[in-house]
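Methods — Computational structure assignment.
A single polypeptide chain was analysed. Its primary sequence is given first, followed by the predicted tertiary structure written as structure tokens.
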Amino acid sequence: MDLKTASALRRLRLVSAPEAVSFLLLLVCSVLKRTTDFNAVPVMGMVHGVLFVLYVLFWADAWNRAKWSLKTAALYFVLSVLPTGGFFAERKLRREAENAVDAALASRARRETVAKA
């Protein structure tokens, strides 16, 4: 993997946890709207919508760059529509991004060693 792949995974990871938090807050706001006079659903709906669109855009980019299988790509998409799925996606993506950076650095070191020889 190259550094662009690692960056795509990092972007997806960084938006996954806030997207999950916004989803949970939207659910809380929905309950509060029906049980009290508090109505923050329009605001939280917009925040969650923007974060979800970012998640889907970054997911598509990561799928393209990381060459995920359909199963892996589907897993990350399903995690985005589950209320707490973003937290699991973030943890899994952190490991995958770290592995991508390590692979990119090792590849760069090999190229430099070959170029010096």
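Note: Residues 3-35 form the longest helix (33 residues).
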